[in-house]
Protein backbone atom coordinates (compact mmCIF):
# COMPACT_ATOMS: atom_id res chain seq x y z
CA UNK A 1 0.00 0.00 0.00
CA UNK A 2 2.80 2.43 0.87
CA UNK A 3 4.64 1.62 -2.36
CA UNK A 4 1.50 2.02 -4.44
CA UNK A 5 0.93 5.44 -2.87
CA UNK A 6 4.42 6.61 -3.79
CA UNK A 7 4.17 5.30 -7.35
CA UNK A 8 0.74 6.90 -7.77
CA UNK A 9 2.07 10.23 -6.57
CA UNK A 10 4.98 10.05 -9.00
CA UNK A 11 2.62 9.21 -11.87
CA UNK A 12 0.38 12.16 -11.10
CA UNK A 13 3.37 14.49 -10.92
CA UNK A 14 4.39 13.38 -14.42
CA UNK A 15 0.85 13.84 -15.71
CA UNK A 16 0.74 17.33 -14.27
CA UNK A 17 3.42 18.50 -16.69
CA UNK A 18 1.56 17.07 -19.69
CA UNK A 19 -2.02 18.05 -18.97
CA UNK A 20 -1.52 21.18 -16.91
CA UNK A 21 -2.38 19.67 -13.52
CA UNK A 22 -5.58 19.66 -11.49
CA UNK A 23 -6.85 20.38 -8.02
CA UNK A 24 -6.54 16.68 -7.20
CA UNK A 25 -2.74 16.85 -7.52
CA UNK A 26 -2.46 18.64 -4.18
CA UNK A 27 -4.23 15.72 -2.49
CA UNK A 28 -1.76 13.12 -3.76
CA UNK A 29 1.67 14.75 -4.08
CA UNK A 30 4.04 15.06 -1.10
CA UNK A 31 3.66 18.28 0.85
CA UNK A 32 6.42 20.76 0.10
CA UNK A 33 8.86 21.42 2.90
CA UNK A 34 9.10 24.93 4.31
CA UNK A 35 11.98 26.59 6.12
CA UNK A 36 12.20 26.02 9.86
CA UNK A 37 14.10 27.64 12.71
CA UNK A 38 16.70 25.18 14.03
CA UNK A 39 16.75 25.16 17.82
CA UNK A 40 18.30 21.73 18.41
CA UNK A 41 21.67 20.89 16.89
CA UNK A 42 21.94 17.32 15.60
CA UNK A 43 25.35 16.13 14.45
CA UNK A 44 26.16 13.20 12.20
CA UNK A 45 28.87 11.15 13.89
CA UNK A 46 29.59 8.62 11.17
CA UNK A 47 28.07 6.79 8.21
CA UNK A 48 28.85 3.57 6.38
CA UNK A 49 27.71 1.49 3.43
CA UNK A 50 26.14 -1.87 4.28
CA UNK A 51 25.06 -3.15 0.87
CA UNK A 52 22.77 -2.58 -2.09
CA UNK A 53 19.48 -0.70 -2.22
CA UNK A 54 16.12 -2.00 -0.98
CA UNK A 55 13.92 0.74 -2.45
CA UNK A 56 10.13 0.29 -2.18
CA UNK A 57 10.43 -3.32 -0.99
CA UNK A 58 8.96 -2.77 2.50
CA UNK A 59 11.51 -5.03 4.12
CA UNK A 60 12.23 -4.93 7.85
CA UNK A 61 15.93 -4.11 7.83
CA UNK A 62 16.95 -1.69 10.58
CA UNK A 63 19.90 -1.37 12.98
CA UNK A 64 20.04 -3.10 16.37
CA UNK A 65 22.44 -2.85 19.30
CA UNK A 66 23.50 -4.97 22.28
CA UNK A 67 25.34 -2.31 24.29
CA UNK A 68 28.69 -3.13 22.71
CA UNK A 69 28.14 -2.97 18.98
CA UNK A 70 25.64 -1.84 16.38
CA UNK A 71 24.52 -4.42 13.83
CA UNK A 72 22.88 -3.88 10.45
CA UNK A 73 21.92 -6.00 7.44
CA UNK A 74 21.34 -5.24 3.77
CA UNK A 75 18.88 -6.61 1.24
CA UNK A 76 21.67 -8.29 -0.75
CA UNK A 77 22.81 -10.43 2.20
CA UNK A 78 25.46 -8.49 4.11
CA UNK A 79 25.45 -8.43 7.91
CA UNK A 80 27.83 -5.94 9.50
CA UNK A 81 28.92 -5.12 13.06
CA UNK A 82 30.10 -1.58 13.86
CA UNK A 83 31.81 0.13 16.75
CA UNK A 84 29.09 2.55 17.93
CA UNK A 85 31.58 5.28 18.82
CA UNK A 86 33.65 5.41 15.66
CA UNK A 87 31.60 3.56 13.05
CA UNK A 88 34.57 1.28 12.40
CA UNK A 89 33.58 -2.06 10.91
CA UNK A 90 34.25 -4.88 13.37
CA UNK A 91 33.18 -7.72 11.10
CA UNK A 92 31.22 -8.30 7.90
CA UNK A 93 29.54 -11.54 6.86
CA UNK A 94 28.38 -11.88 3.26
CA UNK A 95 25.60 -14.48 3.17
CA UNK A 96 24.95 -14.22 -0.56
CA UNK A 97 21.15 -14.39 -0.24
CA UNK A 98 18.40 -11.77 -0.18
CA UNK A 99 17.38 -10.74 3.33
CA UNK A 100 13.93 -9.53 4.33
CA UNK A 101 14.27 -8.76 8.06
CA UNK A 102 16.73 -8.22 10.84
CA UNK A 103 18.93 -8.18 12.58
CA UNK A 104 17.59 -9.39 15.90
CA UNK A 105 20.19 -9.34 18.67
CA UNK A 106 20.52 -11.25 21.95
CA UNK A 107 22.00 -14.33 23.66
CA UNK A 108 25.31 -13.58 21.83
CA UNK A 109 23.54 -14.05 18.51
CA UNK A 110 22.68 -11.88 15.53
CA UNK A 111 19.71 -13.34 13.63
CA UNK A 112 18.47 -12.32 10.19
CA UNK A 113 15.67 -13.64 7.98
CA UNK A 114 15.99 -14.46 4.30
CA UNK A 115 13.21 -13.88 1.83
CA UNK A 116 12.92 -17.60 1.12
CA UNK A 117 11.90 -18.44 4.70
CA UNK A 118 15.28 -19.19 6.26
CA UNK A 119 16.50 -17.83 9.59
CA UNK A 120 20.27 -17.44 9.91
CA UNK A 121 22.03 -17.04 13.26
CA UNK A 122 25.52 -15.54 13.48
CA UNK A 123 27.92 -15.29 16.40
CA UNK A 124 27.70 -11.71 17.68
CA UNK A 125 31.43 -11.50 18.40
CA UNK A 126 32.81 -12.84 15.14
CA UNK A 127 29.99 -13.00 12.58
CA UNK A 128 30.51 -16.74 12.15
CA UNK A 129 27.39 -18.62 11.12
CA UNK A 130 25.96 -20.78 13.93
CA UNK A 131 22.85 -22.35 12.40
CA UNK A 132 20.04 -22.05 9.88
CA UNK A 133 16.34 -22.81 10.39
CA UNK A 134 13.51 -23.14 7.88
CA UNK A 135 10.41 -21.20 9.00
CA UNK A 136 8.55 -21.85 5.71
CA UNK A 137 7.51 -18.26 5.14
CA UNK A 138 8.87 -14.78 4.55
CA UNK A 139 9.53 -12.75 7.69
CA UNK A 140 8.93 -9.02 7.41
CA UNK A 141 9.65 -8.14 11.03
CA UNK A 142 12.79 -8.39 13.11
CA UNK A 143 13.40 -11.65 14.99
CA UNK A 144 13.23 -11.23 18.78
CA UNK A 145 15.70 -13.05 21.03
CA UNK A 146 15.02 -13.63 24.73
CA UNK A 147 15.70 -16.42 27.27
CA UNK A 148 17.42 -18.75 24.78
CA UNK A 149 14.50 -18.39 22.34
CA UNK A 150 14.25 -16.74 18.94
CA UNK A 151 10.71 -15.61 18.12
CA UNK A 152 9.70 -14.76 14.57
CA UNK A 153 6.41 -14.07 12.81
CA UNK A 154 5.94 -14.75 9.10
CA UNK A 155 3.55 -13.31 6.52
CA UNK A 156 1.40 -16.45 6.63
CA UNK A 157 0.29 -15.48 10.19
CA UNK A 158 2.47 -18.02 11.99
CA UNK A 159 4.41 -17.17 15.14
CA UNK A 160 7.29 -19.52 15.92
CA UNK A 161 9.51 -20.11 18.91
CA UNK A 162 12.98 -21.30 17.82
CA UNK A 163 15.78 -22.60 20.05
CA UNK A 164 18.62 -20.10 20.18
CA UNK A 165 21.05 -23.03 20.64
CA UNK A 166 20.46 -24.98 17.44
CA UNK A 167 17.55 -23.46 15.51
CA UNK A 168 15.11 -26.27 16.29
CA UNK A 169 11.43 -25.36 16.47
CA UNK A 170 9.95 -25.39 19.99
CA UNK A 171 6.40 -24.22 19.30
CA UNK A 172 4.16 -22.59 16.70
CA UNK A 173 1.03 -20.42 16.92
CA UNK A 174 -1.24 -19.94 13.89
CA UNK A 175 -3.95 -17.42 13.14
CA UNK A 176 -6.32 -17.44 10.16
CA UNK A 177 -5.22 -14.68 7.78
CA UNK A 178 -7.78 -12.66 5.81
CA UNK A 179 -7.88 -12.89 2.03
CA UNK A 180 -6.34 -9.44 1.58
CA UNK A 181 -3.54 -8.03 3.74
CA UNK A 182 -0.98 -5.23 3.70
CA UNK A 183 2.61 -6.30 3.11
CA UNK A 184 4.33 -6.30 6.47
CA UNK A 185 4.35 -7.80 9.97
CA UNK A 186 4.67 -6.39 13.48
CA UNK A 187 7.85 -7.24 15.36
CA UNK A 188 6.76 -9.19 18.48
CA UNK A 189 7.27 -7.48 21.84
CA UNK A 190 8.38 -9.21 25.04
CA UNK A 191 7.04 -8.43 28.51
CA UNK A 192 8.77 -10.58 31.12
CA UNK A 193 8.28 -14.16 29.90
CA UNK A 194 5.42 -13.29 27.56
CA UNK A 195 5.53 -12.60 23.83
CA UNK A 196 3.00 -10.14 22.41
CA UNK A 197 2.32 -10.59 18.69
CA UNK A 198 0.01 -8.79 16.26
CA UNK A 199 -1.64 -10.53 13.32
CA UNK A 200 -3.27 -9.57 10.02
CA UNK A 201 -6.74 -10.40 11.38
CA UNK A 202 -6.51 -7.50 13.85
CA UNK A 203 -5.76 -9.64 16.90
CA UNK A 204 -3.09 -9.24 19.57
CA UNK A 205 -2.04 -12.53 21.12
CA UNK A 206 0.00 -13.10 24.29
CA UNK A 207 2.07 -16.30 24.30
CA UNK A 208 4.21 -17.90 27.00
CA UNK A 209 7.78 -17.62 25.77
CA UNK A 210 8.91 -21.04 27.00
CA UNK A 211 5.89 -23.22 26.21
CA UNK A 212 4.03 -21.42 23.43
CA UNK A 213 0.77 -21.53 25.41
CA UNK A 214 -1.66 -18.73 24.58
CA UNK A 215 -2.35 -16.59 27.65
CA UNK A 216 -4.88 -14.18 26.12
CA UNK A 217 -6.18 -12.76 22.86
CA UNK A 218 -7.56 -9.29 22.24
CA UNK A 219 -9.26 -7.90 19.13
CA UNK A 220 -7.48 -4.61 18.65
CA UNK A 221 -8.77 -3.78 15.19
CA UNK A 222 -11.99 -5.67 14.30
CA UNK A 223 -12.55 -5.95 10.53
CA UNK A 224 -15.55 -3.94 9.29
CA UNK A 225 -17.12 -3.32 5.91
CA UNK A 226 -18.29 -5.45 3.00
CA UNK A 227 -15.27 -5.61 0.69
CA UNK A 228 -11.90 -7.19 1.45
CA UNK A 229 -10.30 -3.75 1.15
CA UNK A 230 -12.68 -2.24 3.69
CA UNK A 231 -12.02 -5.15 6.06
CA UNK A 232 -8.25 -4.67 6.19
CA UNK A 233 -7.30 -4.68 9.88
CA UNK A 234 -3.61 -5.60 9.89
CA UNK A 235 -1.43 -5.03 12.93
CA UNK A 236 1.84 -4.48 11.08
CA UNK A 237 3.57 -1.64 12.91
CA UNK A 238 5.70 -1.33 16.02
CA UNK A 239 4.28 -2.66 19.30
CA UNK A 240 5.69 -0.72 22.25
CA UNK A 241 5.93 -1.62 25.92
CA UNK A 242 6.36 0.74 28.88
CA UNK A 243 6.32 -1.00 32.26
CA UNK A 244 3.39 -3.43 32.16
CA UNK A 245 1.44 -1.53 29.49
CA UNK A 246 1.33 -2.39 25.79
CA UNK A 247 0.70 0.12 23.00
CA UNK A 248 -0.31 -0.96 19.50
CA UNK A 249 -2.32 0.13 16.47
CA UNK A 250 -4.24 -1.48 13.64
CA UNK A 251 -4.89 -0.33 10.10
CA UNK A 252 -8.40 1.13 9.70
CA UNK A 253 -8.78 0.56 13.42
CA UNK A 254 -7.49 2.21 16.55
CA UNK A 255 -4.52 3.00 18.73
CA UNK A 256 -4.88 1.32 22.11
CA UNK A 257 -3.20 0.72 25.45
CA UNK A 258 -3.58 -2.76 26.92
CA UNK A 259 -2.67 -4.43 30.20
CA UNK A 260 0.03 -7.02 29.58
CA UNK A 261 -1.35 -9.43 32.23
CA UNK A 262 -4.86 -9.73 30.77
CA UNK A 263 -5.05 -8.02 27.40
CA UNK A 264 -7.72 -5.67 28.78
CA UNK A 265 -7.95 -2.48 26.74
CA UNK A 266 -7.18 0.45 29.05
CA UNK A 267 -7.99 3.14 26.49
CA UNK A 268 -8.29 3.46 22.72
CA UNK A 269 -8.53 6.14 20.05
CA UNK A 270 -9.89 5.83 16.52
CA UNK A 271 -6.68 6.38 14.57
CA UNK A 272 -5.67 4.31 11.54
CA UNK A 273 -1.96 3.53 11.27
CA UNK A 274 0.10 0.75 9.73
CA UNK A 275 3.35 2.12 11.20
CA UNK A 276 2.45 1.25 14.79
CA UNK A 277 3.05 3.11 18.04
CA UNK A 278 6.19 4.31 19.81
CA UNK A 279 6.29 5.50 23.41
CA UNK A 280 8.32 7.29 26.03
CA UNK A 281 7.47 7.76 29.71
CA UNK A 282 4.97 10.56 29.01
CA UNK A 283 3.57 10.16 25.51
CA UNK A 284 2.79 7.72 22.75
CA UNK A 285 3.31 8.65 19.11
CA UNK A 286 1.90 7.39 15.85
CA UNK A 287 1.52 8.50 12.25
CA UNK A 288 -1.75 8.32 10.35
CA UNK A 289 -1.88 6.90 6.84
CA UNK A 290 -2.07 10.49 5.50
CA UNK A 291 1.31 11.28 7.07
CA UNK A 292 -0.04 13.34 9.97
CA UNK A 293 1.93 12.78 13.17
CA UNK A 294 -0.07 12.44 16.38
CA UNK A 295 1.06 12.56 20.02
CA UNK A 296 -1.17 11.18 22.79
CA UNK A 297 -0.83 11.26 26.54
CA UNK A 298 0.35 7.81 27.59
CA UNK A 299 -1.78 7.45 30.69
CA UNK A 300 -5.18 8.07 29.06
CA UNK A 301 -4.77 8.63 25.32
CA UNK A 302 -5.67 12.34 25.36
CA UNK A 303 -4.40 14.02 22.21
CA UNK A 304 -1.57 16.46 22.90
CA UNK A 305 -0.62 17.68 19.45
CA UNK A 306 -0.77 16.99 15.71
CA UNK A 307 1.78 17.87 13.07
CA UNK A 308 0.72 17.98 9.41
CA UNK A 309 3.91 19.31 7.79
CA UNK A 310 4.78 15.86 6.39
CA UNK A 311 1.49 15.00 4.72
CA UNK A 312 1.95 12.44 1.91
CA UNK A 313 5.72 12.38 2.52
CA UNK A 314 5.54 8.79 3.80
CA UNK A 315 6.98 9.60 7.25
CA UNK A 316 8.23 6.74 9.36
CA UNK A 317 6.95 6.13 12.86
CA UNK A 318 8.05 8.97 15.20
CA UNK A 319 10.76 7.82 17.61
CA UNK A 320 11.55 9.59 20.88
CA UNK A 321 15.09 10.99 20.98
CA UNK A 322 16.18 13.30 23.81
CA UNK A 323 13.56 16.09 23.89
CA UNK A 324 12.44 15.41 20.31
CA UNK A 325 10.68 12.85 18.19
CA UNK A 326 12.35 12.04 14.89
CA UNK A 327 10.94 10.67 11.63
CA UNK A 328 12.41 9.89 8.22
CA UNK A 329 10.67 10.52 4.90
CA UNK A 330 10.58 9.42 1.26
CA UNK A 331 13.26 11.94 0.19
CA UNK A 332 15.83 10.95 2.79
CA UNK A 333 15.16 13.77 5.26
CA UNK A 334 15.18 13.38 9.02
CA UNK A 335 12.71 15.65 10.80
CA UNK A 336 12.96 16.46 14.50
CA UNK A 337 9.94 17.80 16.42
CA UNK A 338 9.65 19.00 19.99
CA UNK A 339 8.04 16.17 21.94
CA UNK A 340 6.01 18.61 24.08
CA UNK A 341 4.25 20.62 21.37
CA UNK A 342 5.17 19.08 18.01
CA UNK A 343 6.95 22.16 16.67
CA UNK A 344 9.86 21.47 14.25
CA UNK A 345 13.27 22.01 15.85
CA UNK A 346 15.72 20.50 13.34
CA UNK A 347 15.97 18.94 9.91
CA UNK A 348 18.80 17.29 8.03
CA UNK A 349 19.16 15.04 5.03
CA UNK A 350 20.78 11.63 5.24
CA UNK A 351 20.76 11.17 1.46
CA UNK A 352 18.46 11.16 -1.55
CA UNK A 353 17.01 7.69 -1.03
CA UNK A 354 13.93 7.12 1.11
CA UNK A 355 14.05 6.23 4.79
CA UNK A 356 11.26 3.68 5.12
CA UNK A 357 12.21 2.02 8.43
CA UNK A 358 11.88 3.96 11.67
CA UNK A 359 15.09 5.26 13.26
CA UNK A 360 16.54 3.36 16.20
CA UNK A 361 17.80 4.82 19.48
CA UNK A 362 20.53 2.95 21.38
CA UNK A 363 21.86 4.67 24.52
CA UNK A 364 22.10 8.36 23.56
CA UNK A 365 22.68 7.80 19.84
CA UNK A 366 20.30 7.73 16.90
CA UNK A 367 20.90 5.18 14.13
CA UNK A 368 19.20 5.39 10.77
CA UNK A 369 19.24 3.00 7.82
CA UNK A 370 18.04 4.24 4.45
CA UNK A 371 16.80 2.32 1.42
CA UNK A 372 20.13 3.07 -0.23
CA UNK A 373 21.83 0.47 1.98
CA UNK A 374 23.58 3.02 4.19
CA UNK A 375 23.62 3.50 7.95
CA UNK A 376 24.37 6.70 9.86
CA UNK A 377 24.76 7.60 13.53
CA UNK A 378 23.63 10.92 15.04
CA UNK A 379 23.83 12.70 18.37
CA UNK A 380 22.30 15.84 19.83
CA UNK A 381 25.05 18.39 20.32
CA UNK A 382 24.56 20.01 23.70
CA UNK A 383 25.35 23.75 23.90
CA UNK A 384 28.67 24.44 25.59
CA UNK A 385 28.90 26.82 28.53
CA UNK A 386 31.19 29.82 27.97
CA UNK A 387 34.61 29.31 29.54
CA UNK A 388 34.33 32.44 31.67
CA UNK A 389 31.08 31.26 33.30
CA UNK A 390 31.83 30.33 36.93
CA UNK A 391 30.90 26.88 38.16
CA UNK A 392 28.13 26.85 40.77
CA UNK A 393 30.32 24.77 43.07
CA UNK A 394 33.00 27.48 42.92
CA UNK A 395 30.55 29.98 44.39
CA UNK A 396 29.90 27.86 47.45
CA UNK A 397 26.23 27.38 46.66
Q: How does this structure look, described?
A:
The protein is mainly beta. It contains one helix and 33 strands. The strands form eight sheets. Strands 2-7-8-9-10 form a five-stranded mixed β-sheet, with no helix packed on it. Strands 1-33-32-31 form a four-stranded antiparallel β-sheet, with no helix packed on it. A four-stranded antiparallel β-sheet has the order 3-4-5-6, with no helix packed on it. The longest helix has 18 residues. The N and C termini lie far apart (60 Å).
- Please state how the strands of the largest beta sheet are arranged side by side: 2-7-8-9-10
Secondary-structure-based class equals: mainly beta
What sort of overall outline do the alpha carbons produce when their principal axes are compared?
A: globular
CATH superfamily of the domain at 33-57 and 279-382: YVTN repeat-like/Quinoprotein amine dehydrogenase
CATH C-level category of the domain at 33-57 and 279-382: Mainly Beta
In short:
Among the domains are: 1-30; 33-57 and 279-382, YVTN repeat-like/Quinoprotein amine dehydrogenase (Methylamine Dehydrogenase, Chain H). The chain is mainly β and 397 residues long. The chain is 5% helix and 41% strand.
Task: List the keywords.
397 residues; mainly beta; Methylamine Dehydrogenase, Chain H; 5-stranded mixed β-sheet; 4-stranded antiparallel β-sheet; 1 helix; 5% helix; globular; disordered N terminus
Amino acid sequence: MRTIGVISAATLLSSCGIFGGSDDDEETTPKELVDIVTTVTVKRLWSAKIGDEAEFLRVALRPAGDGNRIYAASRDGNVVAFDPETGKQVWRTELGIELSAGPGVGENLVVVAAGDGILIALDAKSGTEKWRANVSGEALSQPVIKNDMVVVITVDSRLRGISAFDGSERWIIEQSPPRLTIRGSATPAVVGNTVIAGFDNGRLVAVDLASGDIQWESVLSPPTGRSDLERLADIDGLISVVGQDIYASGYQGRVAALASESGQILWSREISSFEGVSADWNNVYTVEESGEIVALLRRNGTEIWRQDSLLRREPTLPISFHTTVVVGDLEGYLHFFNNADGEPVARLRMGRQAISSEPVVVADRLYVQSDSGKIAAYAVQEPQRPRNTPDIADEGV
